[in-house]
Structure to design on (436 residues):
């Protein structure tokens, strides 16, 4: 009997130690931040304050922090994701799915390819009519406006999409936008159709299997095409992007496996696709590099940013990511967002303004840039009054984006309510501002 009790006691002690070990290890280690991509992690440990303690805020924030920083967080997330990937062919990345032959897709880009996110002819026409007014207004000031429609992986790699998503296509946002541009005489570059023309002849992949965006080779082709279009549009000579050598490898570089990284697997699958990487060079000519270009775009433009296109070819022009984040940041002391700028001055210091959006984001084309600029030039009094009234909400929204704890809550709300992260942030910002 005594021996049996010893076994029971030993089992209890072992179970207790096993359960407590991760917590004890978390306390022993100074740094437990998991190396996970695409997951919002609470950065700063909450400070103990009497008001927060009495309101229960400190306890909740501490729970979030401990949940993010416990010792085996990264390992358990990766093992869990690996299990779902191998057992059920599922990936634990919000909004992404696996297609045929292990191709990774953003589900929203599949919907765009088949017109499931079509916003309607009237909305597109109204937006493009305002764009035409902006184009004509800027032209009088010596500034050219141009739109670029970038292809999405869902449309380009339709063959690799699972059959359950496929159906006859009536129309798409891309078809609506490109048609209105032709009708209204709006300057636009159609990379969407250009990539489809290249599809049967290109020697290298324009979209990678495990990446969300176009391939590095596709980015190089796009940048070269955009520069030549700008030269014709603005009647200028800009530095060229050139390459004489291309490395062809079967292991992705640059952003060609960005979706794979976000999957946070314990062991990555074999990358069995040949990918091309041009050894690019930019023409070094300071006289040619004087055409300042402002780019408003989605994440597709990050690749050219990493290449150094803005500095080498666009005279140091800014990139406004989703018409919000400014790259490079214009301040050394704080992060500056677009709403904090003098919009008119910021636009008019450029020679070309380019709006580049992939088809999956055409439903929110410009992210209110067009609406704002149109109102600024046609009704400045109402524009500046509205901007002033919205400053408080914008300041709180900025706080949410910059503080990992607040951003994490907004991200969770966007997932739970199936709304965009921007909408969740705006809702939270209004609450913080006391606005219903």
């Amino acid at each position: 009997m005594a021996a049996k009790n010893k076994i029971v006691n030993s089992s209890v002690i072992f179970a207790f130690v096993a359960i407590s070990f991760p917590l004890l290890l978390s306390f022993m280690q100074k740094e437990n931040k998991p190396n996970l991509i695409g997951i919002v992690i609470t950065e700063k440990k909450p400070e103990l304050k009497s008001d927060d303690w009495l309101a229960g805020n400190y306890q909740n924030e501490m729970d979030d922090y401990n949940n993010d920083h416990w010792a085996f967080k990264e390992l358990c997330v990766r093992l869990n994701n690996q299990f779902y990937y191998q057992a059920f062919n599922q990936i634990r990345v919000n909004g992404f799915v696996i297609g045929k032959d292990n191709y990774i897709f953003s589900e929203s880009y599949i919907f765009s390819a088949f017109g499931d996110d079509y916003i309607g002819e009237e909305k597109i026409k109204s937006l493009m009519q305002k764009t035409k007014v902006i184009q004509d207004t800027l032209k009088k000031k010596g500034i050219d406006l141009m739109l670029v429609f970038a292809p999405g992986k869902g449309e380009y790699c339709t063959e690799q999409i699972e059959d359950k998503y496929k159906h006859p296509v009536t129309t798409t946002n891309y078809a609506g936008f490109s048609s209105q541009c032709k009708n209204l005489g709006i300057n636009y570059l159609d990379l969407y159709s250009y990539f489809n023309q290249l599809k049967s002849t290109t020697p290298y992949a324009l979209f990678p299997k495990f990446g969300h965006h176009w391939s590095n080779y596709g980015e190089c082709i796009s940048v070269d095409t955009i520069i030549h279009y700008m030269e014709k549009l603005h009647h200028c000579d800009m530095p060229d992007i050139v390459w004489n050598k291309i490395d062809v490898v079967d292991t992705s570089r640059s952003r060609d496996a960005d979706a794979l990284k976000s999957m946070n697997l314990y062991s990555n699958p074999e990358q069995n696709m040949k990918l091309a990487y041009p050894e690019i060079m930019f023409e070094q000519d300071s006289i040619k590099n004087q055409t300042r270009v402002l780019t408003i775009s989605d994440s597709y433009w990050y690749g050219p940013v990493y290449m150094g296109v803005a500095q080498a070819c666009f005279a140091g022009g800014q990139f406004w990511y989703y018409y919000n984040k400014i790259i490079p940041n214009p301040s050394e002391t704080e992060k500056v967002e677009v709403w904090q700028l003098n919009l008119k001055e910021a636009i008019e210091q450029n020679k070309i303004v380019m709006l580049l959006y992939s088809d999956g984001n055409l439903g929110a084309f410009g992210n209110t840039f067009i609406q704002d600029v149109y109102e600024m030039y046609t009704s400045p009094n109402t524009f500046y009054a509205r901007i002033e009234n919205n400053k408080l909400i914008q300041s709180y929204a900025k706080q949410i984006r910059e503080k990992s704890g607040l951003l994490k809550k907004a991200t969770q709300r966007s997932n739970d309510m199936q709304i965009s992260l921007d909408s969740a942030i705006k809702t939270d910002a209004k609450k913080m501002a006391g606005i219903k």
The first helix runs from residue 2 to 28. Strands lie at 96-98, 104-106, 144-150, 188-190, 241-249, 275-282, 293-297, 319-321, 325-327, 352-358. Residues 141 and 348 are 8 Å apart (CA to CA).
